[in-house]
Structure formats: C-alpha cells, structure tokens
C-alpha cells in the first residue's frame, strides 16, 4: 500500500503506526498497530480515538492484513472483532461495512487497499467541506467554546468542529476559543489545547464546570462540538458533557452547533435512546493517569458510573453542520433527519 501520513496515522513499508493520544502532549510517541490485538488495545486505551480515526485505522489495518496474505475467513473474523471495539461511534461500523463489500470482491486484496485509502481521502475532503460550511456561520470577533477533541488527531484531515475553528480563524473571525478540559479523560485539556497551540489559534483552557459562568457573563458566542452518532431524528451522541453544554447554551440563548461528516449519521437508529453508550472503567473517574503520571483521589471502594458519551436531543441543536450541507431544525421538524440529507 502507498505511504500515508496524517496527523495521527502513518502507513510506511506496509506497517501501520498510530500517534499515541494517551501520551500527548508530554510525549510524541508512535505505536505499532499491526495486529487486531494491538489495534483493539489502542482503541480501548484511547491511544487511537475520535469517531472518524477509529474507523480509518481499522480499515487500513484490515487492508494491510489482506496484503500480508491473511485468508478471507480470518479477515472476516478480524473485521467483526474490530467492528465491536467501540460501540458508540458509528463511523467505525460504516467504514467497515464498506471494507466488507471490498472483501467480497474476487480481487479482495486490491479492493480492500483501494477502499481503505479511498476512505482516508474522503475523510480529508469531508473535513474541508465541513470547515467551509461551518466557518460561514462564525461572525467576526467570536468567542467559541468547544468540547473534547475533534481535530487532525481525530480525523485524517483538519477535523470537524476544530476544522471549523481553524477555517474561521484563518478568515480572521475567531477572537478566542474556550477549551473544555473534558472530564474524565482530558481530551480537551491535553489534545485540543495542544492542537490549537500548534495551529496558532488563541485559546483558554477551562474546567468543564466553568462554562455556565462564562455563558452567564456573555463571554461565549457559540458552542461547536463533534458527534459520534447522529440518530435518524437528529439526536446526537458525543463525548460526555456535551449534553450539559447544549442545555446551558439553550438557556443562555447561545447557538449550539454540531459539526460532523455525513458518515456519522445512522439512519437505522431511530433516536438517541437507541444509541449504545460505552461504559468505561471506574479508574478514569476515581483518578487520572497518563504520561503526566497517575493519581487516585477517590476512596478505593468508591462506586462509580462512567458513561463515555451522552445524548443531546435534536431540540437543543441550532444546526448540524455536515459536509453535504447545514441542516437547520426546521428541516427535521417532522423528526426525520434523513430527509434533510437528500
Ligand atoms: O472518546 P473519544 O475521545 O473518542 O470521543 C471523541 C468525541 O466525542 C468526538 O467529539 C467525536 O468522536 C468526533 S471526532 C471528530
């Protein structure tokens, strides 16, 4: 397969490497990702994360395994294992459905490589379209708040919500970005802060609980987030804490935008209640761990709930900014998001 370089994926000499997103920003470490076990481990540990990137890395690995001569039935098994690695983001399932079709071709080795690389190229283009459409909604001097990490680390391109922030910044319209640290895993505090710094976008890092006060003081002009799955009625699953931002934005009369590729839409999922939400380990809530060190602050026997995502109802969303267009609530007033897509 050809050489490929994105912010967080490298394909060289038929080896797949991923940038360890658990180690950033203290350390820029690349991890080998050449077996299903390795990649599933990276996905579970969030060394590879972000809805689009998970799907792309799984697709590339399967294409590599096919080139290495793994038999078809073993490839099908590997595909099923990877498909189950994270339940909430639908991009993984959507990408692997396309790889599965390639696996069914008579020349499946070439077909899988072509399809995996096509998915990467498409993702780059989707990010650019989202950025163009989203930036058109950003007014001069905007102070924008974002949650989790939706940039080049999480996609093959410039990102989704962060792509919009970047394009709006290039157009001179961003005064500042408020970066939610994003508890419990600190994707905002570690990854978004690092990415915005690299991109030269002015930002201030805040604890998630500070957003309400900033909104009350009139210091937030709009909220921009990504999505892991958009249900058929427009409800959106995204990183835990997104829903509270949407409620706050609604209360304060601030626009709340969801930026995502159309591949995040799941027409088979009727509403947010039907989106599977990943539960993660208690240790992520009772303390923190990363390349910065680790510590536990809660009592050893503390009972913990740790859903990785929450669902924002369509009614709280000002617009879904997709690569194929900006969808406004009026367009889904019949409860069918799908119709607005065509
Ligand atoms: O658990 P994560 O870090 O993978 O969660 C990521 C998010 O919630 C992102 O907003 C979403 O995947 C979109 S990334 C372009």
From TrEMBL:
Give the UniProt keywords, A-Z. Amino-acid biosynthesis, Isomerase, Methionine biosynthesis
Which biological pathway? Amino-acid biosynthesis; L-methionine biosynthesis via salvage pathway; L-methionine from S-methyl-5-thio-alpha-D-ribose 1-phosphate: step 1/6
Q: Please, which domain of life does this record's source organism belong to?
A: Bacteria
Q: Where is the active site?
A: 228 (proton donor)
Database matches in SUPFAM superfamilies: NagB/RpiA/CoA transferase-like (SSF100950)
Which enzyme type, at the first EC level?
Answer: isomerase
Coiled-coil intervals, chain numbering = none
Q: Name one GO molecular function term.
A: S-methyl-5-thioribose-1-phosphate isomerase activity
Q: Where is this site: Transition state stabilizer?
A: 148
Write out the catalysed reaction: 5-deoxy-alpha-D-ribose 1-phosphate = 5-deoxy-D-ribulose 1-phosphate; 5-(methylsulfanyl)-alpha-D-ribose 1-phosphate = 5-(methylsulfanyl)-D-ribulose 1-phosphate
Q: Which residues bind substrate?
A: 49-51, 86, 187, 238-239
* Family under the similarity heading: Belongs to the EIF-2B alpha/beta/delta subunits family. MtnA subfamily.
Task performed by this protein: Catalyzes the interconversion of methylthioribose-1-phosphate (MTR-1-P) into methylthioribulose-1-phosphate (MTRu-1-P). Also catalyzes the interconversion of 5-deoxyribose 1-phosphate and 5-deoxyribulose 1-phosphate. Part of a bifunctional DHAP-shunt salvage pathway for SAM by-products.
Q: What is this protein called?
A: Methylthioribose-1-phosphate isomerase
Species: Serratia odorifera DSM 4582
């Amino acid at each position: 397969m050809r050489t490929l370089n994105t912010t967080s994926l490298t394909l060289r000499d038929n080896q797949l490497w991923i940038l360890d997103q658990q180690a950033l920003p203290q350390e820029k470490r690349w991890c080998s990702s050449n077996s299903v076990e390795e990649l599933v481990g990276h996905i579970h540990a969030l060394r590879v994360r972000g809805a689009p990137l998970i799907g792309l890395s799984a697709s590339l690995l399967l294409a590599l395994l096919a080139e290495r001569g793994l038999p078809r039935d073993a490839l099908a098994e590997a595909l099923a294992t990877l498909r189950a690695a994270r339940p909430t983001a639908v991009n993984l399932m959507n990408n692997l459905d396309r790889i599965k079709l390639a696996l069914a071709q008579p020349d499946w080795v070439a077909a899988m490589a072509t399809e995996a690389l096509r998915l990467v190229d498409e993702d780059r283009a989707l990010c650019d379209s989202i950025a163009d459409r989203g930036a058109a909604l950003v007014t001069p001097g905007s102070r924008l708040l974002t949650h989790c990490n939706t940039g080049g680390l999480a996609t093959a391109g410039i990102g989704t919500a962060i792509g919009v922030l970047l394009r709006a910044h290039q157009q001179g319209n961003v005064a500042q970005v408020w970066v939610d640290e994003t508890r419990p895993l600190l994707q905002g505090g570690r990854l978004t802060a690092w990415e915005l710094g690299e991109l030269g976008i002015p930002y201030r890092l805040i604890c998630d609980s500070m957003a309400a006060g900033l909104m009350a003081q009139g210091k937030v002009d709009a909220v921009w987030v990504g999505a892991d799955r958009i249900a058929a009625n427009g409800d959106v699953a995204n990183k835990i804490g997104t829903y509270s931002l949407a409620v706050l934005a609604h209360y304060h009369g601030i626009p709340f935008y969801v930026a995502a590729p159309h591949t995040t839409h799941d027409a088979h999922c009727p509403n947010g209640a039907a989106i599977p939400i990943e539960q993660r380990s208690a240790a992520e809530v009772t303390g923190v761990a990363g390349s910065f060190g680790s510590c536990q602050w809660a009592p050893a026997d503390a009972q913990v709930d740790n859903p990785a995502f929450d669902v924002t109802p369509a009614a709280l969303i000002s617009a879904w900014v997709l690569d194929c267009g900006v969808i406004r609530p009026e367009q889904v007033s019949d409860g069918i998001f799908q119709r607005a897509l065509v």
